Amino acid sequence: MNSKRTLDRVFHRVAGVGPLLFFALATVEGFLRADYDPVAQPISALALGPRGWIQEVNFVVLAASFFSFAAVLRSEFRQGVASIAAPAVFAIMTIGVSLALSFPMDAPGAAPTLIGRLHTVGGFLVFPWMPVALFLAARRFRHDARWRPYFTYTLATALFCLATIVFFLLFVGPPPAPRPLSRLAGLVQRVQLVPFFAWISIIARRAYREPTAAAAGVADAGVAIPTG
């Protein structure tokens, strides 16, 4: 039992801290590299060049964070659609980050390569799934008394992420496809990620402060367990 509690504590902490650490490290690394433009270039561009290993380690942090958050959601949502679907979405995103780690993006201006295309596939396994995960969580929160105070916040974050992804696909676009605002790729990506990462951190911290055991007590008292 103690080992399980320790593992749960690790999952909660990695899930809560990891995404914010990923973003902070990418921001600092981008600031330290004179040849990097955070407005025009995505975070993945930091994996290019002799200092690229730093961003590769950073991708490992993010993959571990997504995997840990999948475990947190699976532990928190014992029944209903979200108990399977929400962790599954974060498992898909973990695979996407792993692809981005394994196959670096093509250098700006370089001819497209298979490795670069695989990196883009990794991106498609992350960004479009962000609002899906949020909508699944919002649906569950709406019907769960313990989580209902987070419903509006989660739904608003889902709608924002969906809007930014549509904006990105229409006006920015993944490389190498040119779009009217392609020079804002890095900025738009960061605008997408910040609210999503903040949401993960807040939800993981809330789940850690009030563990699922409390839900079991509520269920024993005769309150129906949500199925959403």
Give a written overview of the molecule.
The protein is an all-alpha fold and 228 residues long. The chain has one domain (2-211). Helices cover 70% and strands 0% of the residues. It is built from 8 helices and no strands. It has helices at 2-32, 52-76, 81-102, 114-124, 129-143, 151-172, 185-209, 213-220. α2 (52-76) runs antiparallel to α3 and α3 runs antiparallel to α4 (114-124). The chain starts with a helix and ends in an 8-residue tail after the last helix. The model is unreliable at 213-225 (pLDDT under 50).
What's the quick description here?
By secondary structure, this protein is an all-alpha fold. It is 70% helix and 0% strand.
Question: Helices and strands: which structural class?
Answer: mainly alpha
Overall morphology: globular
Helix percentage: 55-70%
First and last CA, distance: 29 Å
Largest sheet: none
Count up the helices.
8
User: Would you report the number of β strands?
Assistant: 0
Write down the oligomeric state: single chain
How many whole angstroms does the radius of gyration measure? 19 Å
What is the average per-residue confidence, as pLDDT, rounded to a whole number?
Answer: 89
Question: How would you spell out the order of helices and strands?
Answer: HHHHHHHH
Strand content: under 5%
| Count of domains | 1
Any low-confidence stretches, pLDDT <50, length ≥5?
Answer: 213-225
Explain the layout of strands and helices.
Elements lengths: L1 H31 L19 H25 L4 H22 L11 H11 L4 H15 L7 H22 L12 H25 L3 H8 L8
Key traits:
mainly alpha; 0% strand; 8 helices; 228 residues
